[in-house]
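question for whoever is on the cluster today: can someone run the full assembly for these? two chains, 668 residues total. i dont have access anymore since they changed the login thing
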Amino acid sequence: MSISVQNISKTFKKVNAVNDVSFEVKEGELFGLIGPDGAGKTTIFRILTTLLIADKGTATVAGFDVVADYKSIRNHVGYMPGKFSLYQDLTVEENLEFFATIFGTTIYENYDLIKEIYVQIEPFKNRRAGKLSGGMKQKLALCCALIHKPKVLFLDEPTTGVDPVSRKEFWEMLKRLQQKGITILVSTPYMDEAELCDRIALIQHGKILQIDTPQEIVKYYPKNIYDISADNMYKLIESLKSFKHHYSVYPFGEFVHYTDTRNDFNPQELQYYLESKNHTNIKIKITKTTIEDTFMELTK
Amino acid sequence: MKRFIGFIKKEFYHIIRDRRSLFILFGMPIAQIMLFGFAITNEIQNVDIAILDHSKDATTQEIIHKISSSKYFKITQLIDNESSIEAAFKKGKVKAVLIIEKDFTKNLTKENNANIQIITDATEPNTANSISNYIISIIQNYKQEINKNTNVPYQINANTKMIFNPELKSVFMFVPGVMTIILMLVSAMMTSISITREKELGTMEVLLVSPLKPYQVIIGKVFPYIFLAIINTIVIVLLSIFVFKMPIQGSYLLLAFVSILFILTSLSLGILISTIAATQQTAMMISLAGLMLPTIILSGFIFPVTSMPAPLQILSNIIPAKWFIIILKGIMLKGVGFTFIWKETLILLVMTVFNIVLSTKKYKIRLE
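^ ran it for u. tokens below:
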């Protein structure tokens, strides 16, 4: 096991940030902590990177205890905090050089590891880090976290505030890093990114709701979901909510996601009902359950 | 070692690229020493004084003439009796009264000993100090003139107990004070700000999760400031010597040694502040209110410690600047050696060690 967390709890004053959390990450795995802001993701990261001490429970990273062997861990992990934490007044190259030096290595020694990422920001190597775009900043931060070839990489919300194209590129990079044998723990509030992980843990209010692969986790959703659309979407939600057999109704993109309390639900029945409510252009079709649906269901 | 050098290199980039701190580091020392040297000196000019001459003979006339012909004093009143002295002060124009005893010339020529009393308006202690010093100095000059042709030297006793300031130049008194403030500013404030900046920007988080040991981070952060503070010391001393023609009486080596010690004391204070403060703003407020203000007010730089109320006098003992100013005045103005200032030096050393031990205890290897 590359990361092992057992019954970790952490309380700040009166806020229970992390509540009895346990999970394990295998070597070379890309593991995602998925949850909204304030779910406790950052606290878990800080406990694992030895920055905070948990009130209860134990954890190991790369075989080292996070409290007793904190010095060893600090030698072997790469950490990219949620907030951009590089020196804004240093250039791209100077930042990278600095982090290489304090980890006792050089840019050239591990250049193959960061090469693919670094070539993208190399044209701006003489630009100050503070003047880079959001996506560039994250690429540089990733380079800096990787420069000493860590065994485990901790990425706390690396794609927050990054444009969709850069986000996609960023995840492609993570996939390639994973192939080089680096264990990656990543957190994100974006459900669509969850599908790119090997396994994910859904987390809310400091508690883990479910841990599984993105493919399996949707099976925890007990029902079939129907995409429903009509001309008047607002009225559609009203009507669905007043349908006596409705289980859940919530807007999802351009559709409304609807589930029924009965297992032998016939969409035709709903079609008639909505027509009776004077809806026009009604479309009902069964749809694939997403992680977001599962998350919504589990947090109910 | 390579890590350490890499760290220091980074610190220098920070300093060089931040125009504001560069200005504080190099602009301030020069601006302050010039300001104090030229503008806010308590050098006196055309001060109104009154004379109460009980003798009214040739010698006293000559002394009075000497005083009035200097650019420092203007004799605006001649008083007849002692009871008018208070009235003269109360009008507020006269800053000092010079009293010449009865039979001044007779005492001087027959007994070789004559007395003059100087009464100064002590509501402005600094001016009062300067006035009496200036008058004494003029009388001394006169005494030397009349003693040139005599075998038995005449004595004129000026009845005051004021500080010795040989060249009648107040700028000298300010150099130690300004130097102390600058070193405090550069060392304590700038380091505490530079360390808390890492906390505030989140880079401390990354530094903590790195193989760098806490002491390496701290030494790496303060090292450039030691270097800069030494440069500042040299600049101030050079300005004093070449712009204000101030002779350094004591040993330069000793001066360098105690200056470096005081730089270390200030740095240790800066580190201590940074362990308490979470943001640059707080660090700056603590440095200004907790260090700069007491340094200026309680160190004896502007207000003499002896004229403070007792509780403040006791409080002034914990201000490192007080001891450093005593040491500097000793070396620069009086030219004393280490045997005269070892106590003050020891106090600074103890303070430094205390601060460092306390900072090490308080330094967080984690975020909380």
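summary bc i know u wont read the tokens: The first strand of chain A starts at residue 3 and ends at 12. The domain at 223-290 of chain A is CATH 3.30.70.920 (Alpha-Beta Plaits).
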